[in-house]
Amino acid sequence: MIKDMDTWTNVRRDVLVDEMSRREACRKYNLNFRTIQKILKHPEPPDRPKEYARDKPKIGPFISVIHEILEADKKVNAKQRHTGKRIFERLRDEHGYTGGITVVRDEIRRYKQAAAEVFMPLAHPPGEAQFDFGEAKAIYRGREIKVMFCVMSLPYSDAFFCQAFPRECTETFQEGHVRAFQFFGGVPNRISYDNSKIAVAKIVGGRGEKPTREFLRLQSHHLYDRHFCLVRRPNEKGHTEGLVKFARRNFMVPVPHFDDFEQFNQKLADDCRNDLNRKLRGQEGTKAELLDEDRQAMLPIPEDRFETRRVKAGKVNTLSLTRFDRNDYSVPTQYAHREVVLVGSLDRVRIVADSHVIAEHVRDWESENVHYDPVHYLALLERKPNSLDFGKPFEQWDLPDAFGVLRRRLESESGSDGRREFIKVLRLLEKHKLRELAEAIDRALEIGAMTVDVIQILLQEGRESPAKLFRLDGRPHLQDHHIPEPQISQYGDLSQHQEKQP
Question: pTM for the complete prediction?
Answer without folding.
Answer: 0.70
